[in-house]
Amino acid sequence: MRLHEDFGFFKREKIDDGMGNFYGKWVMKFRTKAAITYRQGSETVQASRLEGKQPAFLSIRRFSSAEDITTDWCCCNMRDTEFDQKTGNFKGAVYNIRAINLEPSNRQYYRLTLEGGVAIG
């Protein structure tokens, strides 16, 4: 598997406001090489594209930092997206992580189900 893309993974820094709510900026946890495959074909995928969503699969190598990824995190292609570390804001395409599984054909990789074009967080 060829991992040509450079993806950054982000976790929201949780700060309690004292009233039971949490807020915070996005903090980069790590960067790694990845391979992205945009989903095609099914009726639900075509319907989500009409809504402006962009479903995809992302394959990354399995290593210790990658085991911390949860569905609360987000990721982006660092070649196409700018990230401001001061404010924790993105400028470009950001993907929500919907599911994390081992790659069916090679268990040395994680296969993440992503959804772009939606609100992150």
Give a short synopsis of this structure:
The chain has one helix spanning 43-50; strands at residues 5-12, 15-16, 22-23, 26-38, 54-61, 74-77, 82-84, 89-91, 95-102, 109-116.
Q: Could you tell me the mean pLDDT?
A: 86
Main beta-sheet strand count, sense and barrel state: 6 strands, antiparallel, barrel
Whole-number total of structural domains: 1
**For the terminal residues, how far apart are their CA atoms?**
30 Å
Structural category: mainly beta
> Which overall shape is indicated by the principal axes computed on the Cα atoms?
globular
CATH topology: Thrombin, subunit H
In terms of DSSP E residues, the strand content is over 45%
Low-pLDDT sequence parts: none
Order of helices and strands: EEEEHEEEEEE
Count of DSSP helices?
1
Kindly state the number of beta strands.
10
**Percent helix:** under 10%
Protein name: Phage head-tail adaptor
Organism: Bartonella tamiae Th239
InterPro entries: Phage_SPP1_head-tail_adaptor, SSP1_head-tail_sf
Pfam families: Phage_HCP
Question: Could you please describe the fold and organization of this structure?
Answer:
The chain is mainly β and about 120 residues long. The chain is about 5% helix and about 50% strand. It is built from one helix and ten strands; from the N terminus they run ββββαββββββ. It has a six-stranded antiparallel β-barrel. A two-stranded antiparallel sheet has the order 2-3. A hairpin with a 5-residue loop joins strand 2 (about 15) and strand 3. The model has no long low-confidence stretch (mean pLDDT about 85).
